[in-house]
Design brief:
Helix content is 5%, strand content 42%. It is mostly beta strands. Strands 1, 2, 3, 4, 5, 6, 7, 8, 9, 10, 11 and 12 form a twelve-stranded antiparallel beta sheet that branches. The protein is globular. The N terminus is likely disordered.
């Protein structure tokens, strides 16, 4: 059925027709207008952090990072209350940013909506859940100074300023509460 819809909409311009429903432009800034990602420290404290999940679609890959292989950080969300959790491979690759509407010291067991951005640092492609409530984080209360949880999204993350998307499996993560980004 989806193939038929795609095929039909792909044939419209050839027949001089316009689709009845136009896709809205993304409200997120163009990739060239986005700041460079922060330099993140290694995701290691008394207990190391980790990130595990899978990306489907344009950036098809499994993610299984921990300790020295993972850079992570916490920062305040710019211009609004909340916290950003940042995860990136030490050797380059996709940067995962999870924004939640709670201060870092308020991240306890429970569920919060999340704004998720995935940036492929190699190609400059960005994907975001901006403007939709399609992603959530279920935080756990682990022992010690860790923030841990599971990220899940109920749909694909559309590309910013172009066509395309990625879909995230459930992502399990943990990072030291003291991992403040510089």
């Amino acid at each position: 059925m989806l193939w038929l819809l795609w095929y039909s909409s792909a044939q419209l311009p050839e027949r001089g027709l316009r689709p009845a429903l136009a896709l809205p432009r993304s409200p997120v800034a163009a990739p060239s207008a986005l700041p460079a990602p922060p330099r993140l420290p290694a995701c290691v404290a008394t207990r190391p952090g980790f990130l595990r999940g899978r990306i489907y679609g344009e950036l098809e890959q499994s993610i299984a990072l921990a300790g020295e292989g993972l850079r992570c950080g916490l920062s305040q969300r710019p211009g609004e209350a909340g916290t950003r959790l940042l995860f990136a491979p030490a050797t380059g690759g996709p940067l995962l940013v999870i924004g939640v509407p709670a201060a870092a010291d308020e991240l306890r067991a429970g569920e919060l909506p999340a704004l998720v951005t995935l940036a492929d640092q190699g190609s400059g492609r960005f994907y975001s859940s901006a403007g939709s409530e399609r992603c959530w984080v279920r935080f756990r209360a682990p022992p010690g100074g860790l923030i841990a949880g599971k990220l899940y999204c109920a749909g694909a993350l559309p590309a910013v300023q172009r066509r395309g998307s990625v879909t995230l499996s459930e992502f399990d993560f943990s990072l030291p509460r003291a991992a403040a980004a510089p």
